[in-house]
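To the team - uridine-5'-diphosphate-xylopyranose complex, inputs and output below.
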Amino acid sequence: MKQIAVVGLGYVGLTTAVGLAQLGHQVLGFDVDDAKVSKLGAGESPIYENGLEAALEGLIHSKALDFTNSLDVVEDFKPEFIFICVSTPQDDSGAADLTILNSVVSQLAGIAEPNSILVIKSTVPVGTGQTIANTLNRTDVFVASNPEFLREGTAMKDFMEPDRIVVGSSNPEVAKRVLDLYEAIDAPKLQTNLESSELIKYAANAYLAMRLSFTNDIAALSEKSNANVDQVLHGMGLDKRIGTAFLKPGPGWGGSCFPKDTNALVAIAKEFGSPLPLVETAIASNNAAIARSVNAITELAGGDLANKKVAVWGIAFKANTDDIRDSPALKIVDSLISKGAEVQAYDPVAVAPDRAGFVLKGTALEGAAGADVLAVLTEWPEFAEVSPDKVAEAMRTSVVYDARRILPKSWRAHVSFIKVLGEASE
Ligand code: UDX
Ligand code: UDX
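Output:
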């Protein structure tokens, strides 16, 4: 059992704190957000993440996990490891903004115990770990990189059953100490230098984003050429070198990682004079995918969105999360509003900030009420359970756009028209 502090309790930090405590370590979570810390102290999760709240309660009760908003408390805790999980948002140029991270590191430099390790879990540009090690001004405190590969919605499972664990450090002994924290987890463990570990994270996310851009481009081509997109992607994925996972077409990829990380990687690559044109094209392809859905909805509304009511099911960037950061659904919503539509949305858990021309309803049917077009933009399973007859009854004209390909085929007989992304209109 080790003493571990986790700084920054967002989607990544909180999962990491809970996961490390479940592995048997003594964990203290720190966040500057007082409201978040009090909520966590009471065993309540500030985010919607499967299994998180259930795990929290037991760990707090057994005193394996505690939370604080005071760095003095972190100092008194004398952690041997400090995991840094603060946000690294994108700046105006697309590069990662390290202001928060640098400020946290400088505060920790004053309180870290001798022989302790700062473990950087935040996604940071290649070279950041070494820069931190150089500027830390503490020869007795070490730096390691331990990127996260947690998918929102299955983050707890991804923590406990990862495809791999990567730890980078300029000092192999330091990397080994961090890897040993995960001793109980049976997964390939990769020990690298700092730069490789930092680049693995970006390379993995950019590769997955490229794969999805390709998938969405193939879906658009299938739609035009009357090919069956499911069969095309399945036939492609059965090649073991390709694989069938992560080949689901949709309205575009989003979330707190792919958009930010692809932009940051493009910026990093340019800085090193080694550009990545494939990633640049994947980003452009994703913008085109989002625009395709806006165009499809506009056409379904008769070519003009002025004074049209569009119902939107799903505003989260994908199902099983309340996260709306860089959600393709919300980008589509904003574009529809800018073209004169009034948008009425429903999401089982996500909430969007108020905006003109947008209203959030409490149920799927209330969301559909009086609408000219219904667009399914997030793949929440409950949408496929709604009665199409009731939807048709609630809408003004029962025209439906399924950008996630989740509505049962039987819907066709119950609504006046349904367009499915990736399929030629009948
Ligand atoms: C973040 C990064 O965005 C991502 O690049 C990285 O891979 C992992 O960490 P996420 O957990 O989704 O991802 O971020 P967010 O939900 O914004 O959480 C950050 C937390 O840090 C917040 O709770 C915030 O209050 C906290 N924080 C921020 C601090 O504790 N101290 C600060 O100075 C600033
Ligand atoms: C991602 C990485 O997968 C994870 O390893 C970590 O680095 C954090 O970032 P996350 O953002 O939670 O995880 O979501 P993910 O499941 O990867 O989906 C990202 C986007 O791709 C979503 O908008 C999703 O709807 C879309 N997607 C995913 C598809 O359109 N089709 C697919 O087959 C898979």
